[in-house]
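Per reviewer request, we include the raw input and output of the structure prediction for the construct analysed in the revised manuscript.
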Amino acid sequence: MQGFTAADDLSGMLEWSEPVIFDCLCDCYRDHLGEEALVGTLAHQQCRAWRALIAGDMGKFQALRRELAAVLERRRLTAGCAAEADARTLTELSEIVGARFQRCARLARTYRLALVELARRLAPPSARVGLPVFQSSPRQGFPRISR
């Protein structure tokens, strides 16, 4: 895993975020498709990729994204559909972090930084140039930014 090493905080996010992620993905695909069975299939596929992304398993994430792209292509959907679903998901997770974790500033900050890192990982490699990489500070227990 490159850069971000706050594994405990990301594993905590993995616990509570998966149902939220799945619901956001379903909502997005439902907007583009009429077939409810296909909505669930696509959302499940992309949710598995998100799970790997949050876990930091970039090899598995990339393999699952390739599988998702192939399924989307077979259904005559573009990668933009998956990108829209990712953007909606990041927005929803950000709103939850802001609302749910406001009483614990350190945890809210850590989750916000984790979301920024997830957005960085989701970005195409050409768009990542110059973006900060977050690393865990063993002394403070939350990520710090390095360039």
